[in-house]
Design goal:
It is built from eight helices and ten strands. Bound molecules: adenosine-5'-diphosphate and magnesium ion.
């Protein structure tokens, strides 16, 4: 009984945290959440993300990187920068403390040069996910139909070929399977030549969790998990973006 009560409390606090992040952003007049905020929400909905911490100084970035483990990734955290790599705000593959120091300073310089007015919250230090098949899960709110969930494979498949599937939320597990099966690039997920098959179950779970999130929180106008790196077992979201209404 005690355990039941406890897990009920945990569930409540989970929902409160997502609401708290969204209302805090609204209060500050921010339409787009920081990657750290979007990923905290992901965690609460069971969506796997790369481990992360925010550093305020170069020394702190090194300490956090040592704690998280190498190789690591550094990214700018700013409410004014939505596409981080466009302005030189992402450096991946950092192998040691020296790399972290260089990346920290180069990101700060790039931001000063390319987005001089941007407010800087800090530098995100995060676990580097090994490369593998990349997929994208998105959500977009249609004024008429409400939120719809999107699925596609990363890179050219979505951007150039528009090879995506959509379903109106909330989706069922069968819907999620159909969304995955429905893209033309599906055979790539099944494995080919030396590429191992991707964990379709893990993608299915992410689609269902995303559906639950945008159904619970109608303040979300757009959501973008791009990319999610998928392995033979499991998957990791390395970038998350949430835009509020
Ligand atoms: P942007 O705001 O430009 O979309 P991202 O966070 O998506 O920035 O980073 C750009 C690219 O860097 C990603 O598409 C991915 O290929 C790579 N990347 C980012 N974070 C990681 C990570 N933690 N592990 C591995 N690769 C990453
Ligand atoms: Mg991205």
């Amino acid at each position: 009984m005690l355990i039941d009560n406890h897990s009920h409390l945990v569930e409540l606090s989970v929902l409160n945290e997502t609401s708290r992040i969204i209302s805090q952003a609204s209060k500050e007049g921010r339409k787009s959440l920081l990657e750290t905020e979007a990923k905290t929400i992901c965690i609460e909905y069971g969506i796997p993300v790369t481990r992360f911490e925010v550093a305020k100084t170069e020394d702190e970035a090194v300490r956090l990187a040592q704690d998280i483990g190498f190789p690591t990734v550094l990214k700018i955290v700013s409410p004014d920068i939505i596409h981080k790599s466009d302005i030189g705000g992402v450096v991946i593959g950092l192998k040691n403390a020296e790399d972290v120091r260089k990346a920290y300073n180069s990101i700060m310089q790039n931001v000063k040069r390319n987005a001089p007015k941007a407010r800087i919250v800090g530098i995100l230090v995060q676990e580097m996910a090994p490369s593998s098949t990349e997929v994208i899960v998105g959500a977009i709110k249609d004024p008429q139909f409400g939120p719809a969930i999107m699925f596609g494979l990363g890179g050219v498949f979505v951007e150039v070929l528009k090879d995506v599937t959509f379903r109106v939320a909330p989706i069922t597990k069968d819907d999620a399977y159909e969304m995955i099966n429905g893209v033309k690039a599906y055979p790539l997920l099944k494995g080919y030549r030396n590429n191992a098959p991707a964990d379709i179950e893990a993608i299915t779970e992410i689609l269902l969790d995303t559906s639950r999130l945008v159904t619970d929180h109608t303040e979300i106008k757009e959501l973008d998990l791009n990319p999610i790196i998928v392995y033979e077992k499991g998957a990791k979201t390395v970038d998350a973006r949430i835009i509020l209404q």
